[in-house]
Amino acid sequence: MIVSARIPARKRIKRRPTLRTSENQLVSVAPVAPVSCDMKAEFAYDWRMRRIAKKTFVFTSGTWALQETTRYKYREWNPIEETVADASGTITAVKRYVWGNDLSGNMDGAGGVGGLLSMSHNVAEVVNTYFHAYDGNGNVRALVKADALNPAASAIVERYAYDGFGRELAGGAPLATSVNGFRFSTKMLDAETGMNYYGYRYYASADGRWINRDLIAEKGGLNVYGMVGNDAIFSIDVLGMVDFGPILNQILNGKGCAGLDSVSAAICNCINKLKPACPVKKDGTANPTPPDPRKGLLPKQSDVVNCMCLASTDPDCEQKANHAIYKATHPNPPAPNPSFAR
């Protein structure tokens, strides 16, 4: 099944229809009424929903002509190689990426945001090396071209600036002529669509919204473009597929992991394995009585948080998980202080 939608785009094309598969993967972006020199993009994905190929076409003489094909290789969700071939299949450029710890302090905890260290760009056997510079939120703010023979000659060759929703401000390096495709949130920005590729979803910074539906559809609420019922302070959604509230409530009420979907059940089982077979009192002696569901059922909170954030790319996962645990273990929080009401 193919479904279509319309989104705004940059350059000369005012509106572009998008085609998506039944799995909500964006597969094609093209103008409604193409004219000469307009562009079209087509995408392909692997079984993990990672984008592995992008084809760009140019409208000429009344038909779409293939211009180039870009293929991607990954380490988990971070691309490590990008190969560009022309219409005949001849490779014209190769980019290789080196990743380090992202904003989470490890390789994958924040989905690579702020973790791209360098890029080597090989064109006609001439290799240039570039390093990425960031702001505190993991947005690429500058590109430094390295000179191995004369390090003092290394210089900033591109600069970028963004508004609060990721739109690039005037004065930055034009994407069409830039050697660097990683911009806001260290995510790939496609020149053909003006959208950032986040993995499971595409982000349209011009609108400040996702163009893809929530992966769990109406299970996440009637607004399939929303997240955790607009309660992101006290809830968390790992990769757009699970809300931890029901998991914690089932465990705390002694219901186990029955009735949960496969992803939620896996996290639930991870938490259950952490529970001690025989709860221990504060003095270290064994406690033969079953623990109170609201006082002793959960194991050490930090271990629960690790289970909850095992597959998360959200840099705030641990903070949100702790909030979710507090909310689940304190079902009747005190009323807010009226003096803080607005």
Explain what this protein looks like in three dimensions:
The two termini are 47 Å apart. The protein is an alpha+beta fold and 342 residues long. The chain folds into two domains: 3-212, Lipocalin (Beta Barrel), CATH 2.40.128; 218-334, no CATH class. The protein contains four helices and 16 strands. The strands form two sheets. A twelve-stranded antiparallel β-sheet has the order 1-2-3-4-5-6-7-8-9-10-11-12, with no helix packed on it. The protein is 13% helix and 30% strand. The chain has helices at residues 244-252, 262-274, 301-308, 317-329; strands spanning 3-8, 15-20, 26-29, 39-45, 51-60, 63-75, 78-86, 91-99, 116-123, 126-134, 140-145, 155-159, 188-189, 196-197, 202-204, 209-210. It is globular.
